Amino acid sequence: MKRLLLLCVILLSACNQNVQKTETTEPLYDYDVEERLEELKITLRESPPPVANYVNAVKTGNLMFMAGKGPTKAEGGYVTGKVGIDLTVEEGYEAARLTAIAQLSVLKHELGDLNKVVRIVKVLGMVNCDSSFTQHPEVINGFSDLMVGVFGERAKHARAAVGMGSLPRNIAVEIEMIVEVQE
């Protein structure tokens, strides 16, 4: 009986040492993500408030579900209009890039530190356009390219880029994403 008890104590001790070892995490990046933003001359803004009855983000487990955001201009207001009619594909790309900055601003607010982003998992990009427009991927690349510029390979994500007949407040794009984060 004493031997069994001693064996249990030894096993518990070994388990506790293993748990302590797994709780220490190595940095995810070989650079500081927030310094990378500075290098890219990206300035995050105040986290834009929701425009209706919802929240900007919901965290469950190690996933952060980000509500859709639109292209917020630095001076305020949104980039509006239909891509392919009111805006060129290049202007749509830039609107998607501004939307990425808005999403990063929310993510920073929610996490406190963007170095906690493990990976960008999924992106849904919606382009305000008419039914004849077909360059949705080129527009949403503005979002995806910026995310890869900030987070590197960890930002390569599954994605849908689709056209919409209208978007709230006539914004040019709306983009939502799912992000894996450190707990």
Q: Mind telling me the C-alpha Rg?
A: 21 Å
List how many beta strands DSSP finds: 5
Beta-sheet strand percentage? 15-25%
Tally of structural domains: 1
Question: If helices are DSSP runs of H or I spanning 4 or more residues, what is the number of helices?
Answer: 4
Top-tier CATH class: Alpha Beta
What's the overall average pLDDT, rounded? 89
Label the CATH architecture: 2-Layer Sandwich
- The level of helicity is 25-40%
- Could you state the CATH homologous superfamily? RutC-like
Oligomer: single chain
From the N-terminal CA to the C-terminal CA, the straight-line distance is: 41 Å
CATH topology assignment: 60s Ribosomal Protein L30, Chain: A
The main sheet orders its strands as 1-2-5-3-4
What global shape is seen?
globular
Order of helices and strands: HHEEHEHEE
Runs in which pLDDT lies below 50 for 5 or more consecutive residues are 4-9, 17-24
Descriptive overview:
This protein has about 180 residues and is an alpha+beta fold. The chain has a single domain, classed as RutC-like (60s Ribosomal Protein L30, Chain: A, 2-Layer Sandwich), CATH 3.30.1330.40. It is built from 4 helices and 5 strands. The chain has a 5-stranded mixed beta sheet with strand order 1-2-5-3-4, covered by helices on one side. β1 and β2 form a beta hairpin. The radius of gyration is 21 Å and the shape is globular. The protein starts with a helix and ends with a strand. About 10% of the residues have low confidence.
